[in-house]
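Researcher: Please translate sequence to structure tokens.
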Amino acid sequence: MKKTDILVIGAGIAGLTFAIKIAEKRKDLTITVLTKTNRSESNTRYAQGGVAAVWNKDIDTYEKHIADTLDAGDGLCDKEVVEIVVKEGPIRVKEIINWGTRFDKTKDDDYDLGMEGGHSEYRILHYKDLTGWEIQRALVEKAQTYKNIEIFDHFFAVDLITQHQLGRVVTRVTPNVACYGAYVLDLETRTIETINAKTTIVCTGGAGQIYRNTTNPVIATGDGIAMVYRAKGRLENMEFVQFHPTALYNPAGENPDFLVSEAVRGFGAILKTQDGKEFMQKYDERLSLAPRDIVARAIDNEMKTRGDDYLCLDCQHLDKEAFIKHFPTIYDKCMSLGIDPFKQMIPVVPAAHYLCGGVKTDQIGRSSVQRLYACGECTSSGLHGANRLASNSLLEAMVFAHRIAKDVLENIDDYDWMEGIPGWNAKSTTDPKEMVLITQSNKELKEIMSSYVGIVRSNVRLNRAKDRLTLLYRETEQLYSTTTLSPQLCELRNMITIGYLVTSSAAMRRESRGLHYTTDYPEQMDYIETMIL
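Model: Translation complete:
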């Protein structure tokens, strides 16, 4: 058993920002950070667009950013949380700049602020089209300067440890449930280790891999949300899955889908049909810069109506030199597939991009389980509501990482390690004889979610999805209980859980709101509520 003061599960912007802030204040505390691949790989790394923050106060205000966020969230944002994130955000951005993060500047040495869908002003700080990569680089380098931060690569968190592992029956209404660390699979030795922690923070990112087409990396399998759910923690708003309108269409297929950033439309690119006709005027007066839920549904509807496999993003009228400077990765990717953005339109399709629901947290980032915090995309903090405003996610992670760090520092000395935690029980399990059982179930899950729980839903589709997912769940739990653990099996188990939660939440919401659109209830209801699981 390993003992640590603080266990951080996930090494993206949320986890590393938190760890650095703790390490700066308390050099006596041990901070253990786990990542299931390596420390440079995270959801953060794939964020192209940038960070939204009120930077140029001559033209922008907190009130404008708050209003844009509330409008995108379609009535389900927590206004107090929105105000907290928007007002505290610029301070947190300045911190990561001081830690070595670079953002693009103009010739006058001012920050080159971008525009994205749903925003009323230019407020997006970015580093070319690799903003997430740049932030991840700076945070990893900063974290490695602290001796009390220990980052473990290739360690997969399997389950959180609560009173359940100590022999007590725990339900979602059991009072005073607390977290004492996690069971962790060492991917090199394939052994399960017990990490005993005074406090734990889950920063595991999203779950886009439950869909066939997603911009998320292969690690985005919803592990943290599934673990908190099994630990009887509260979740909410799981039905709100954001589909990015413009993933690059590649008939050869690739995982993940390559993202054509929303910033390209902010730069002036225009959505068109394959025959070169604009269509967004039929759906929203903001045209190609409408919020993502509106644009994604518009593209989905046009594709189905016309019978097309993709629509197009027209960049041919833009300044070539400026485009290549701002979007070098996108330009190189297009050219590698034989698509010259200045001679032909870029083919695009919607792809699963961001989960707006997750672990229900308060304004400090505390979950419903004591000693357990959550931060970043795995949470439902109240910021995003029914639809995330572009480039608010990195801001949210930084603001809540700071707030959680402050709360942990105020309370950590009141905690001690739990005694008597049993080791992992692997008795009566054998090595899996057929990996095809896992890989085939993975394919089935993606097909079910993509076909029945996508951009447009219905009662019939959702009921069919629940039936299919229930069968997959039973088969996978049988496999889980009889074979030794592998990362593939653990991820499959987590993704099936997430798929079922998304589907169940969607079935409960009998209205169309934000990212959830159902043909059975196309209108938005007057009452507003969140779906808590």
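Researcher: Any highlights?
Model: The first helix runs from residue 13 to 25.
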